[in-house]
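Q: Please design a sequence for this.
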């Protein structure tokens, strides 16, 4: 357990740091249009009075309709 705590765990932390450093630094070599942040699409607003679907309950051959409000 001492070997893991003194040698392996710090090695994993350092390796993760270097992988993150390489991933962030790789943006320098990307074309300029790929290095930019992703575009945000405009969301179309929903109409205020959207129609809700009507639900149907059925019990042994009888159907009960629940009106949508």
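A: Design:
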């Amino acid at each position: 357990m001492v070997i893991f705590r003194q040698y392996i765990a710090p090695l994993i932390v350092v390796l993760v740091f270097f992988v993150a450093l390489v991933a962030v630094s790789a943006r320098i070599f990307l074309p300029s249009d790929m290095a930019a942040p992703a575009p945000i699409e405009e969301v179309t607003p929903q109409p205020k009075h959207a129609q809700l679907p009507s639900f149907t309950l059925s019990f042994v051959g009888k159907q009960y309709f629940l009106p949508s409000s």
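Q: Thanks. Anything notable?
A: The chain has a mean pLDDT of 76. Residues 15 and 21 are 10 Å apart (CA to CA).
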